[in-house]
Specification:
Layout: H1 3-8, E1 26-29, H2 38-52, H3 54-62, E2 75-81, E3 84-95, E4 98-106, H4 115-129, E5 134-139, H5 144-152, E6 156-157, E7 172-177
Parallel strand pairs: 4-5
Antiparallel strand pairs: 1-2, 2-3, 3-4, 5-7, 6-7
Helix pairs in contact: 2-3
Length: about 180
């Protein structure tokens, strides 16, 4: 399923105005610099600052330029409901067969509704459509909900990556092979 198919919905409908299938948010590709992405970027900075401190947040957000998330090697997706971004995420080229997922976010007022799962699925579909056969991602040790999300979506924890010499977890690294849709779609 590509972004266009996610945007339209499985039944071809566009859902509600400003939303997606069944009244849920529509998922669309935008540039990182698109004004619609500003709330997501601002919330990510605030969340990273709260969990890891201002310096770590600045470093993380500055680590990858906007061009990393542009076609043909990357994508930046937003879930939009009633004209506002409510969830989003991106990927960039990690290596010739691997897309690295970054910036997975859901607005605090829209959590626990499956939007993180929808964004990750849309990112995986778009990455596969661009020829990637594997996805990789990392998340910090202060994001247990993200760890649970990725494990629940079939991501494999890379046990030896992300630990220091004493075996303490500095970050979690996951990967997943992108294969054919088990439903044959």
């Amino acid at each position: 399923m590509t972004v266009g198919e996610v945007r339209r919905g499985a039944d071809g409908s566009g859902g509600d105005p400003g939303g997606g299938p069944g009244g849920g948010p529509a998922i669309r590709a935008v540039a990182v610099t698109d004004p619609a992405a500003r709330p997501m970027i601002s919330d990510l900075i605030a969340e990273y600052t709260d969990r890891y401190g201002a310096e770590a947040a600045r470093e993380e957000m500055a680590a990858h330029p906007a061009s990393d998330f542009a076609a043909p090697h990357g994508a930046f997706l937003l879930a939009v409901a009633r004209g506002a971004a409510v969830a989003g995420g991106a990927f960039r080229r990690f290596d010739p067969r691997t897309a690295e997922l970054k910036r997975i976010w859901t607005a605090a007022t829209h959590r626990r509704r499956g939007l993180g799962r929808r964004i990750v699925a849309a990112l995986e579909a778009e990455a596969a459509a661009r020829g990637y056969t594997r996805v990789f991602l990392t998340t910090g040790p202060h994001q247990p909900e993200a760890v649970a999300l990725y494990a629940g979506l079939g991501y494999r924890l890379l046990e030896t990556e992300g630990t220091d010499e004493a075996g303490r977890r500095r970050y979690y690294a996951f990967d997943k092979e992108l294969g054919p849709d088990p439903d044959g779609a």
